[in-house]
Amino acid sequence: MPTPPSVRTARVPALAKINLTLKVLHKRPDNYHELRTVFQTISLGDFIEVDYRPAKTTSLQVECTPEIPDNIILRAAAAILQEMRLKAEVRFRLRKRIPMGGGLGGGSTNAASVLLALPALAGKRVSIDRLTHIAAALGSDVPFFLCGGTALGLSRGEELYAFPEPRVSHGVLITPRIHVSTPQAFQSLGRHLTVTPDSRIMNSFQSFSWEVGDNLPAWSWRGFCQNDFEEVVFAQHPEIRRLKKKLISAGASVALMTGSGSAVFGFFSNRSDAVAAAKAFPNIESVVFRTVKRARYRSLWWECLGAHALEHTWPPLSRYAE
Ligand code: C5P
After folding, report:
1. Whose Cα sits closest to atom 14 in ligand 1?
2. Among 54, 181, 232, 254, which is most exposed with the fewest C-beta within 10 angstroms?
Protein backbone atom coordinates (compact mmCIF):
# COMPACT_ATOMS: atom_id res chain seq x y z
CA MET A 1 0.00 0.00 0.00
CA PRO A 2 1.47 3.42 -0.94
CA THR A 3 2.34 5.61 2.05
CA PRO A 4 0.23 8.77 2.28
CA PRO A 5 2.10 11.94 1.31
CA SER A 6 3.67 13.51 4.35
CA VAL A 7 2.70 16.86 5.75
CA ARG A 8 5.12 19.73 5.18
CA THR A 9 4.93 22.50 7.74
CA ALA A 10 6.25 26.03 8.11
CA ARG A 11 5.75 29.00 10.40
CA VAL A 12 5.95 32.14 8.30
CA PRO A 13 5.88 35.86 9.14
CA ALA A 14 3.38 38.39 7.82
CA LEU A 15 4.74 41.86 8.60
CA ALA A 16 2.66 45.04 8.64
CA LYS A 17 3.31 48.13 6.50
CA ILE A 18 3.07 51.84 7.01
CA ASN A 19 2.80 54.46 4.27
CA LEU A 20 5.64 56.97 4.62
CA THR A 21 3.70 59.17 2.23
CA LEU A 22 0.36 58.70 0.46
CA LYS A 23 -0.99 60.97 -2.25
CA VAL A 24 -4.29 60.19 -3.95
CA LEU A 25 -4.60 61.63 -7.43
CA HIS A 26 -7.62 61.27 -9.70
CA LYS A 27 -10.30 58.63 -9.86
CA ARG A 28 -9.79 56.21 -12.73
CA PRO A 29 -12.41 54.86 -15.13
CA ASP A 30 -12.29 51.51 -13.23
CA ASN A 31 -13.29 53.42 -10.04
CA TYR A 32 -9.92 52.89 -8.36
CA HIS A 33 -7.76 55.90 -7.54
CA GLU A 34 -4.34 56.68 -8.92
CA LEU A 35 -1.81 56.63 -6.06
CA ARG A 36 1.68 57.86 -5.34
CA THR A 37 2.77 56.20 -2.13
CA VAL A 38 5.87 54.88 -0.37
CA PHE A 39 5.30 51.64 1.50
CA GLN A 40 7.55 50.52 4.35
CA THR A 41 7.52 47.18 6.15
CA ILE A 42 7.79 47.30 9.95
CA SER A 43 8.59 44.78 12.65
CA LEU A 44 4.97 44.37 13.86
CA GLY A 45 3.61 41.19 12.32
CA ASP A 46 1.34 38.17 12.40
CA PHE A 47 2.55 34.59 12.22
CA ILE A 48 0.97 31.90 10.09
CA GLU A 49 1.59 28.21 10.70
CA VAL A 50 0.95 26.17 7.58
CA ASP A 51 0.45 22.41 7.24
CA TYR A 52 0.53 21.33 3.59
CA ARG A 53 -0.29 17.85 2.31
CA PRO A 54 -0.89 16.87 -1.35
CA ALA A 55 -4.39 15.36 -1.74
CA LYS A 56 -6.89 14.20 -4.36
CA THR A 57 -9.23 17.07 -3.56
CA THR A 58 -8.44 20.46 -2.15
CA SER A 59 -9.55 21.35 1.35
CA LEU A 60 -8.54 24.60 3.03
CA GLN A 61 -8.98 25.56 6.64
CA VAL A 62 -7.91 28.55 8.71
CA GLU A 63 -7.93 28.75 12.49
CA CYS A 64 -7.90 32.22 13.97
CA THR A 65 -9.27 33.75 17.15
CA PRO A 66 -11.42 35.76 16.73
CA GLU A 67 -12.59 34.27 13.45
CA ILE A 68 -12.22 36.51 10.38
CA PRO A 69 -15.15 36.22 7.96
CA ASP A 70 -14.22 35.65 4.29
CA ASN A 71 -10.55 35.32 5.28
CA ILE A 72 -8.30 36.45 2.40
CA ILE A 73 -5.90 33.62 3.37
CA LEU A 74 -8.35 31.11 1.88
CA ARG A 75 -8.75 33.09 -1.35
CA ALA A 76 -4.98 33.41 -1.67
CA ALA A 77 -4.49 29.67 -1.07
CA ALA A 78 -7.12 28.71 -3.66
CA ALA A 79 -5.57 31.08 -6.22
CA ILE A 80 -1.99 29.83 -5.81
CA LEU A 81 -3.00 26.15 -5.83
CA GLN A 82 -4.89 26.78 -9.05
CA GLU A 83 -1.83 28.52 -10.53
CA MET A 84 0.32 25.47 -9.65
CA ARG A 85 -2.46 23.08 -10.83
CA LEU A 86 -2.23 21.26 -7.51
CA LYS A 87 -4.75 19.84 -5.10
CA ALA A 88 -3.88 19.80 -1.41
CA GLU A 89 -5.14 19.80 2.14
CA VAL A 90 -3.88 22.99 3.71
CA ARG A 91 -4.44 24.07 7.28
CA PHE A 92 -3.47 27.56 8.47
CA ARG A 93 -3.22 28.76 12.06
CA LEU A 94 -3.13 32.54 12.13
CA ARG A 95 -1.66 34.31 15.17
CA LYS A 96 -3.08 37.79 14.64
CA ARG A 97 -1.21 40.78 16.08
CA ILE A 98 -1.82 43.40 13.39
CA PRO A 99 -5.03 45.28 14.21
CA MET A 100 -7.63 45.02 11.45
CA GLY A 101 -8.88 48.12 9.64
CA GLY A 102 -5.90 50.14 10.82
CA GLY A 103 -4.26 50.91 7.47
CA LEU A 104 -1.46 48.46 8.26
CA GLY A 105 -2.15 45.98 5.45
CA GLY A 106 -3.01 43.16 7.87
CA GLY A 107 -5.13 41.12 5.42
CA SER A 108 -2.88 41.89 2.45
CA THR A 109 0.28 40.70 4.20
CA ASN A 110 -1.46 37.45 5.22
CA ALA A 111 -2.41 36.87 1.57
CA ALA A 112 1.13 37.54 0.31
CA SER A 113 2.57 35.18 2.92
CA VAL A 114 0.35 32.39 1.62
CA LEU A 115 1.43 33.13 -1.97
CA LEU A 116 5.10 32.88 -0.93
CA ALA A 117 4.78 29.88 1.36
CA LEU A 118 2.67 27.39 -0.60
CA PRO A 119 4.92 27.08 -3.68
CA ALA A 120 7.94 26.45 -1.40
CA LEU A 121 6.01 23.82 0.58
CA ALA A 122 4.79 22.21 -2.66
CA GLY A 123 8.32 22.23 -4.13
CA LYS A 124 7.21 24.34 -7.11
CA ARG A 125 8.57 27.57 -8.48
CA VAL A 126 6.10 30.33 -9.38
CA SER A 127 7.80 33.39 -10.86
CA ILE A 128 7.53 36.71 -9.06
CA ASP A 129 5.78 38.06 -12.17
CA ARG A 130 2.97 35.51 -11.84
CA LEU A 131 2.84 35.95 -8.06
CA THR A 132 2.48 39.71 -8.55
CA HIS A 133 -0.37 39.18 -10.99
CA ILE A 134 -2.23 36.87 -8.57
CA ALA A 135 -1.48 39.20 -5.64
CA ALA A 136 -2.88 42.27 -7.44
CA ALA A 137 -6.13 40.39 -8.12
CA LEU A 138 -6.46 39.74 -4.36
CA GLY A 139 -5.98 43.40 -3.34
CA SER A 140 -4.07 46.55 -4.27
CA ASP A 141 -1.60 46.29 -1.34
CA VAL A 142 -0.88 42.56 -1.64
CA PRO A 143 1.96 42.75 -4.26
CA PHE A 144 4.04 45.02 -1.98
CA PHE A 145 4.32 42.26 0.62
CA LEU A 146 5.96 39.89 -1.85
CA CYS A 147 9.17 41.95 -1.58
CA GLY A 148 8.75 44.28 1.42
CA GLY A 149 11.29 46.94 2.44
CA THR A 150 10.73 50.43 1.06
CA ALA A 151 8.87 50.63 -2.24
CA LEU A 152 7.25 53.27 -4.38
CA GLY A 153 3.65 52.27 -5.20
CA LEU A 154 2.01 53.70 -8.31
CA SER A 155 -1.22 53.05 -10.19
CA ARG A 156 -3.65 51.60 -7.63
CA GLY A 157 -0.67 50.72 -5.41
CA GLU A 158 0.18 47.45 -7.14
CA GLU A 159 2.82 48.85 -9.51
CA LEU A 160 5.98 48.83 -7.41
CA TYR A 161 9.50 50.09 -7.68
CA ALA A 162 12.35 49.76 -5.21
CA PHE A 163 12.90 53.10 -3.42
CA PRO A 164 15.94 54.34 -1.45
CA GLU A 165 15.65 52.74 1.98
CA PRO A 166 15.83 54.75 5.18
CA ARG A 167 18.19 53.32 7.78
CA VAL A 168 16.51 51.06 10.35
CA SER A 169 14.46 53.58 12.34
CA HIS A 170 12.47 53.28 15.55
CA GLY A 171 8.89 54.34 15.96
CA VAL A 172 5.72 54.07 17.97
CA LEU A 173 2.50 52.92 16.40
CA ILE A 174 -0.79 53.88 18.05
CA THR A 175 -3.69 51.68 17.09
CA PRO A 176 -7.02 53.11 18.24
CA ARG A 177 -9.85 50.60 17.96
CA ILE A 178 -11.46 52.57 15.15
CA HIS A 179 -12.23 50.73 11.93
CA VAL A 180 -12.02 53.04 8.92
CA SER A 181 -13.61 51.69 5.73
CA THR A 182 -11.08 52.09 2.90
CA PRO A 183 -13.66 52.39 0.06
CA GLN A 184 -15.53 55.03 2.09
CA ALA A 185 -12.34 56.96 2.81
CA PHE A 186 -11.53 57.06 -0.92
CA GLN A 187 -15.12 58.16 -1.61
CA SER A 188 -14.91 60.99 0.95
CA LEU A 189 -11.87 62.42 -0.82
CA GLY A 190 -14.25 63.35 -3.65
CA ARG A 191 -11.63 62.93 -6.37
CA HIS A 192 -12.95 63.20 -9.91
CA LEU A 193 -12.22 61.38 -13.09
CA THR A 194 -9.29 63.32 -14.50
CA VAL A 195 -7.57 62.69 -17.76
CA THR A 196 -5.06 65.52 -18.10
CA PRO A 197 -1.64 63.87 -18.48
CA ASP A 198 -0.14 66.38 -16.00
CA SER A 199 -2.30 65.04 -13.20
CA ARG A 200 -0.22 61.86 -13.24
CA ILE A 201 3.06 63.63 -12.61
CA MET A 202 3.92 64.92 -9.16
CA ASN A 203 6.95 67.17 -9.28
CA SER A 204 7.32 67.22 -5.49
CA PHE A 205 7.44 63.44 -5.49
CA GLN A 206 9.88 63.27 -8.36
CA SER A 207 12.31 65.73 -6.84
CA PHE A 208 12.22 64.01 -3.46
CA SER A 209 12.98 60.61 -4.97
CA TRP A 210 16.05 62.07 -6.70
CA GLU A 211 17.28 63.83 -3.59
CA VAL A 212 16.71 61.18 -0.93
CA GLY A 213 19.81 59.15 -0.16
CA ASP A 214 19.96 55.56 0.99
CA ASN A 215 20.28 54.90 4.69
CA LEU A 216 19.09 58.25 6.08
CA PRO A 217 17.01 58.03 9.27
CA ALA A 218 13.27 57.91 8.50
CA TRP A 219 12.65 61.12 10.45
CA SER A 220 14.79 63.05 7.96
CA TRP A 221 11.98 62.41 5.47
CA ARG A 222 9.61 64.60 7.48
CA GLY A 223 8.99 67.18 4.72
CA PHE A 224 7.92 64.35 2.43
CA CYS A 225 5.65 62.48 4.84
CA GLN A 226 2.04 63.39 4.01
CA ASN A 227 -1.18 61.46 3.88
CA ASP A 228 -4.11 62.78 1.83
CA PHE A 229 -6.56 60.73 3.92
CA GLU A 230 -5.78 62.61 7.13
CA GLU A 231 -8.06 65.55 6.35
CA VAL A 232 -11.19 63.47 5.73
CA VAL A 233 -10.52 60.82 8.37
CA PHE A 234 -9.60 63.41 11.05
CA ALA A 235 -12.83 65.29 10.28
CA GLN A 236 -14.78 62.12 11.03
CA HIS A 237 -12.62 60.94 13.96
CA PRO A 238 -11.02 63.99 15.66
CA GLU A 239 -9.47 61.67 18.27
CA ILE A 240 -7.03 60.39 15.60
CA ARG A 241 -5.79 63.94 15.01
CA ARG A 242 -5.30 64.30 18.79
CA LEU A 243 -3.21 61.11 18.84
CA LYS A 244 -1.01 62.45 16.05
CA LYS A 245 -0.48 65.72 17.97
CA LYS A 246 0.27 63.78 21.13
CA LEU A 247 2.98 61.78 19.34
CA ILE A 248 4.62 65.06 18.30
CA SER A 249 4.39 66.38 21.88
CA ALA A 250 5.95 63.10 23.08
CA GLY A 251 9.00 63.90 20.92
CA ALA A 252 8.23 62.32 17.53
CA SER A 253 10.11 64.09 14.74
CA VAL A 254 7.40 63.07 12.30
CA ALA A 255 3.93 61.60 12.95
CA LEU A 256 1.46 60.45 10.33
CA MET A 257 -1.65 58.35 9.88
CA THR A 258 -1.00 55.23 7.77
CA GLY A 259 -3.13 54.17 4.79
CA SER A 260 -6.75 55.18 5.25
CA GLY A 261 -6.27 54.94 9.04
CA SER A 262 -6.88 54.57 11.82
CA ALA A 263 -3.35 53.74 13.05
CA VAL A 264 -0.88 56.60 13.52
CA PHE A 265 2.91 56.25 13.71
CA GLY A 266 5.70 58.52 14.91
CA PHE A 267 9.47 58.23 14.41
CA PHE A 268 12.04 58.83 17.16
CA SER A 269 15.80 59.16 17.02
CA ASN A 270 16.40 55.94 18.95
CA ARG A 271 14.62 53.00 20.51
CA SER A 272 14.71 54.23 24.10
CA ASP A 273 13.03 57.52 23.11
CA ALA A 274 10.33 55.48 21.34
CA VAL A 275 9.82 53.26 24.42
CA ALA A 276 9.56 56.37 26.64
CA ALA A 277 7.07 58.02 24.26
CA ALA A 278 4.85 54.92 24.20
CA LYS A 279 4.34 55.42 27.95
CA ALA A 280 2.49 58.67 27.15
CA PHE A 281 -0.36 56.47 25.81
CA PRO A 282 -1.33 54.33 28.83
CA ASN A 283 -4.97 53.82 27.84
CA ILE A 284 -4.58 52.93 24.21
CA GLU A 285 -2.77 50.16 22.37
CA SER A 286 0.71 51.15 21.26
CA VAL A 287 3.57 49.19 19.73
CA VAL A 288 7.24 50.13 19.54
CA PHE A 289 8.49 49.06 16.10
CA ARG A 290 11.47 49.35 13.80
CA THR A 291 11.50 49.58 10.03
CA VAL A 292 12.40 46.38 8.17
CA LYS A 293 14.54 46.66 5.06
CA ARG A 294 14.18 44.52 1.92
CA ALA A 295 17.26 42.41 2.70
CA ARG A 296 16.02 41.66 6.22
CA TYR A 297 12.52 40.90 4.90
CA ARG A 298 13.96 38.41 2.46
CA SER A 299 16.21 36.80 5.07
CA LEU A 300 13.24 36.37 7.43
CA TRP A 301 11.53 34.42 4.67
CA TRP A 302 14.62 32.43 3.93
CA GLU A 303 14.92 31.46 7.61
CA CYS A 304 11.33 30.18 7.54
CA LEU A 305 11.26 28.49 4.14
CA GLY A 306 14.88 27.74 3.37
CA ALA A 307 14.50 24.17 4.63
CA HIS A 308 11.76 23.59 2.02
CA ALA A 309 13.46 25.35 -0.85
CA LEU A 310 14.47 22.14 -2.57
CA GLU A 311 15.92 22.38 -6.05
CA HIS A 312 16.10 26.15 -5.88
CA THR A 313 12.35 26.72 -5.82
CA TRP A 314 12.65 29.66 -3.47
CA PRO A 315 12.91 32.62 -3.47
CA PRO A 316 10.73 33.40 -6.48
CA LEU A 317 12.66 35.09 -9.27
CA SER A 318 11.69 37.53 -11.97
CA ARG A 319 11.95 36.62 -15.61
CA TYR A 320 15.20 38.60 -15.76
CA ALA A 321 16.93 36.49 -13.13
CA GLU A 322 19.65 34.13 -14.22
O1 C5P B 1 -7.77 46.70 -3.94
P2 C5P B 1 -8.47 46.65 -2.63
O3 C5P B 1 -9.48 45.53 -2.54
O4 C5P B 1 -7.55 46.67 -1.45
O5 C5P B 1 -9.28 48.00 -2.51
C6 C5P B 1 -10.36 48.18 -1.64
C7 C5P B 1 -11.19 49.36 -2.11
O8 C5P B 1 -10.47 50.58 -1.92
C9 C5P B 1 -11.52 49.34 -3.58
O10 C5P B 1 -12.72 48.64 -3.83
C11 C5P B 1 -11.69 50.80 -3.89
O12 C5P B 1 -12.98 51.25 -3.49
C13 C5P B 1 -10.70 51.47 -3.00
N14 C5P B 1 -9.41 51.76 -3.67
C15 C5P B 1 -9.34 52.83 -4.56
N16 C5P B 1 -8.15 53.12 -5.16
C17 C5P B 1 -7.04 52.39 -4.88
C18 C5P B 1 -7.10 51.30 -3.98
C19 C5P B 1 -8.30 51.02 -3.39
O20 C5P B 1 -10.34 53.52 -4.81
N21 C5P B 1 -5.89 52.74 -5.45
Report:
1. 32
2. 181
Q: Is the pLDDT of residue 183 over 70?
A: yes
Whether 87 is catalytic is: no
At residue 223, does pLDDT exceed 80?
Answer: yes
* Catalytic member of 27, 46, 141, 244: 141
User: What's the CA-to-centroid distance between 182 and ligand 1, angstroms?
Assistant: 7
Q: How far is the CA of 55 from the centre of ligand 1 (A)?
A: 35
pLDDT above 90: residue 291: yes
Ligand 1 atom with minimal separation from the 142 CA: 4
Better-predicted residue by pLDDT, 73 or 309: 73
Spell out the domains of the chain, with CATH numbers in brackets.
8-163+295-309 (3.30.230.10), 170-290 (3.30.70.890)
Q: Please state the atom number of ligand 1 nearest to the C-alpha of residue 156.
A: 21
Instruction: Report the chain's mean pLDDT, rounded to a whole number.
Output: 92
Stretch 124-144: mean pLDDT = 96
As a whole number of angstroms, the distance between CA 221 and CA 263 comes to: 19
Q: Confidence band (pLDDT; 50, 70, 90) for 220?
A: confident
Average pLDDT over residues 223-248: 96
CA gap 280, 284 in Å, rounded: 10
